[in-house]
Amino acid sequence: MVKNQKTARWLSGQKLAVMKFFTNSQMTYRVNTAGTLVLNVHALRTPYQAVLSETLTVDPYIKVEELFSVNGENRLIRLELPEPSSFSLSYQATVDNTYVAKGPAELFETPVAKMEPEILPFLYPSRYCQSDKLVRLANNLFGGISQPYDKVRAIVDWIYANVEYRSGFTNSETSAYDTVTEQAGVCRDFAHLGIAICRALTIPARYFTAYAYLLQPQDFHACFEAYIGGEWVLFDATKLVPINGLIKIATGRDAADSAIANIFGDIVFESMQVSCNLGDVDFVPVYQR
C-alpha cells in the first residue's frame, strides 16, 4: 500500500493515487421467529485497500461471528437470532483506497490456457450471468475489437447507451438475459450484463459490491471487474460515480455470491442508511468515458 495520501505518482509504470474515505452503514431488522442473518458489509482488505479502523455495533447486543472466506473476497458476519426481537446494526470504517491507472497497452489478453485455476470459474455461466445465451450478441457487437481493454470499454459504453437506469424496475430474480430484453435496470443489472457479455467473449469477469463516493442517493453500489493483463480491472457501466471513489466490499461470480444480506428464517429488513464520505480535500474524480 502506497502511503502518500495527497498526491498521484508513477511507480513501475503505474499511476497511483491514494485517498482516504469514511464509510458507514446502518440497518434495522425485525425478527419474527428464530433464525440466522449473514451480512456482508465490511470493507475488504486488499493490496490496494487498507482498512485503517472500523467499528461494528449491534443494539441490543447480539453475538457476532466473523466468517473467513476461502478465497478472501468477502468478510462475512453471522448473527444467530434465537427469539423474536428487533435490532439495529451499525458499521463504520476509515479506508485508504489506492486507485491504479494503467494504459491499455499494458492490459493484454490472457489466453485461457495460461489462466490460473482460480480465474476459470469467472468464465462460466452463473445464475444471473447466462453468458452462454449471449455469445452471438457479444460477438456480433464486440467480436471485431482486438484489444481486450478496448473491448470491455466498448461493452460498458454499449450498456450505458442502451440500458436505461430505472430504480425499482427489476427484482432479485432479474438476470443479464432479462436486462438485454427489458433494456432497463439498476446497478446490479448493469453489472450482471457486463459480466455476461465479457464471459461470452472469453474474458473472465466478476461481480463487485462497494461503498460509492458521490452516489446519489447513497446506497450500496454494484459494478464489475474484468480479468485483463493478468489482473482484475474495475468497470462501472452505470457511470454514476467516480471509478476511484469505490470502496470494495466483496466480489463473486454474481450477486448470489456477494449479497449484502442472506436471511434464514422469518426476519424482516426494515430500514437502511449508507454513506461514503471523502477524507481528503484534493480528490480528483476519475470517471470512465
Q: What does it look like?
A:
The chain is α+β, with helices and mostly antiparallel strands and 289 residues long. It has two domains: 8-99 and 261-278, Immunoglobulin-like (Sandwich); 103-252, C8orf32 fold (Roll). Helices cover 15% and strands 40% of the residues. Strands 1, 2, 4, 7 and 15 form a five-stranded antiparallel β-sheet that branches. It has a four-stranded antiparallel β-sheet with strand order 5-6-3-14, with no helix packed on it. Helix 2 packs across helix 4 and helix 3 (176-182) crosses helix 4 (187-200). The protein is globular, with a radius of gyration of 19 Å. The protein starts with 7 loop residues before the first strand and ends in an 11-residue tail after the last strand.
The CATH C-level name of the largest domain is Alpha Beta
Question: How many β-strand runs?
Answer: 15
- Major β-sheet profile: 5 strands, antiparallel
- Helix/strand-derived category reads alpha+beta
Shape: globular
Kindly report the average pLDDT value. Answer: 91
Tell me what portion of residues adopts beta-strand conformation: 35-45%
The SSE order reads EEEEEEEHHEHEHEEEEEE
Number of helices: 4
| CATH-defined architecture of the largest domain | Roll
Do you know the CATH topology of the largest domain?
A: C8orf32 fold
Distance between the termini: 27 Å
Radius of gyration (Å): 19 Å
Q: Number of domains in the coordinates? A: 2
